Amino acid sequence: MVILVLGACGRLLAVREFITAYPRNTFYYRPYEMGLVASSLLHGLGFSSPFGGATGPTAIVAPGYPIAVAGIFYVFGTYTAASAVVIMLLQVLVSLLTIWLMMHVATKTLGAQSALIAGAFWAVSIPLLWVPTIFWETSLSQCALVGMTALALRCRQNPSRGMWALLGTCCALASLTNPALLVSLVAMMAWAAYQTRRSGCRGPLLGLLALLVVFAPWPIRNAIRFHAFIPLRSTVGIELYMGNHPGATGRIDESHFPMFNKQEMASYISKGEVAYTHDKSAEAWAYIAARPATFVKVSMRRFYRFWSGTGNANGPGIYAMHALTTTLLGGVGLLFLFRRGKRSLALLMALPLILFPLPYYITHAEFRYRLNVDPLLTILAAYAVTQIVALFRRQRGLEENLI
Question: Is 57 strand, coil or helix?
């Protein structure tokens, strides 16, 4: 409870500072597309016009977060200060739920000490205090990933049909909020299916069915609207191009984004979203094919930036300090799990760490993307601390006995 109170106080102070230090409605400035799509939904235009104006249907963003924002806009007003405060406060609550889930997972698998360290670190780490002030699904994605971890562990313990249905449903809802999580979450479901393979329950099939039923309306809608197969988001080609084009450094280059480039906006409008993103993808792959060595070099740079927290140009040093701490100690914690014989748990934790970052190695690797896997890294880092302390104490005890 003390840790949750600390986490709440720190985040509420960050929200208060954000409100008082920045001009009114600064919260909505970046990224614009979330609010614009939510506004379109509220005005009965469906998922459309992510860059302003009336540019037609879109699949640039996943539906989960804009739907939630549209609901808040409906009650508290579109682009109002009240709506901004409500969104931030709800994201504070989600962040606190994330801390609770982290401590729950750590307690059940690694012990109370690891849970306390992980929860305390997440409650007070400065970069994390500001996550609720981001107008994006970052808070929800963090909670979803650690929540799915808790459900997968629960499913291994109690592989009932109801638990599998819940697992599949949550996987779909999380993926509709952040499609980048889909591969990792399906891999976690596969882990749970393998762990329960001898139970004789047909739960994994039910979980897969639940996943498909809940997730399917989005790609079906896209097929009807665009006459194309778009299972997740249409923005892949744009993201790939922004990270891979003549003069690219591996960082996001928003000067090529339709929102900030009149020429690109005109091209987006004239071609339509599907053709525009397809052409951007083709340009990016042509650039990669012509300069494979450059692509590999820049991708390695993005790999480093993702794990070191240096993906933002001119990002604060505290980002790198936080990221390097959890990355290095998290890696050590993963090794300790393997050495202590907890290999199934190590695999469950490792799957998202391996799979989730893959798209960012070839596009761009801002710090906020890495924050999605930070709860798992923090749990592993906390376990590493407990094991290092235990080794130090054993070593010191041996030395004292020799004396």
Answer: strand
Give the amino acid at 291.
Answer: R
Cα 380 from Cα 195, distance rounded (Å): 21
CA angle 8, 12, 15 (to 5 degrees): 145
Separation between Cα atoms, residue 375 and residue 367, nearest integer Å: 14
Amino acid at 272: G
| CA proximity to 141, closest of 188, 92, 174 | 174
**Does the pLDDT value for residue 336 go beyond 60?**
yes
- Residue 302: what are its φ and ψ, rounded to 5°? -65, -40
φ, ψ dihedrals at 57, nearest 5°: -60, 155
Q: Which residues does 54 contact at the CB level (< 8 Å), separation at least 6?
A: 45, 48
Pull the structure tokens for residue 351: 């799957």
| pLDDT value of residue 334 | 95
Structure tokens at 259: 């929102």
3-state secondary structure 134-189: CCCCHHHHHHHHHHHHHHHHHHHHCCCHHHHHHHHHHHHHHHHHCHHHHHHHHHHH
pLDDT in tens, 28-48: 887 788 999 999 999 999 999
pLDDT digits (tens, 9 = 90+) for 101-158: 999 999 999 999 999 999 999 999 999 999 999 999 999 999 999 999 999 999 988 8
Backbone angles phi, psi at 62, to 5 degrees: -70, 160
CA distance 68 to 91: 11
- Tell me which amino acid residue 328 is: L
Query: Taking the model in full, what pTM does it have?
Result: 0.93
1 against 133, higher pLDDT: 133
- The b-or-e profile of 191-226 (16+ CB within 10 A means b, else e) is bbbebbeeeebebbebbbebbeebbeebeebbeebb
Give the C-alpha separation, 305 to 290, whole Å: 24
Instruction: Give how far Cα 52 sits from Cα of 58, 83, 260, Å.
Output: 12, 20, 11
The angle, 0 to 180 degrees and rounded to 10, between the axes of the packed helices 138-157 and 374-402 is: 60
Residues 204, 210, 214, CA angle at the centre, nearest 5°? 150
Two structure tokens written together for 45: 């235009």
